[in-house]
Write a structure and sequence with these properties.
two-stranded parallel ribbon; globular; mainly beta; about 5% helix; five-stranded mixed sheet
Length: about 90
């Protein structure tokens, strides 16, 4: 399921087990909670795993994801890369 899109640059997705950043030049518009199939090359990014030079297609919509409530200290720990978060500022 899509958690964030930066058209022409990146797509962030998650499933029940993990989340991942997808590097893609594709500009097809998708929205938070859209379900997508993705094909790309696995790689290691600056902070975590990524799929590089990827393409994707939408195949449905899932229930809107609930962001995880975290603290600033938790975010700085680096365990939430590419996840949908809610933080009080």
């Amino acid at each position: 399921m899509v958690t964030l899109q930066r058209p022409g640059k990146a797509l962030f997705i998650r499933d029940a087990t993990a989340n991942i950043q997808i590097l893609t030049r594709q500009t097809t518009q998708v929205h938070v909670s859209d379900r997508v199939n993705v094909v790309g090359y696995p790689a290691v990014g600056e902070y975590t795993r990524i799929l590089d030079d990827a393409i994707f297609e939408k195949f449905g919509t899932a229930p809107t994801p609930v962001p995880l409530q975290v603290t600033a200290k938790q975010v700085l720990g680096g365990d939430y890369n590419a996840d949908l978060l809610k933080i009080e500022g």
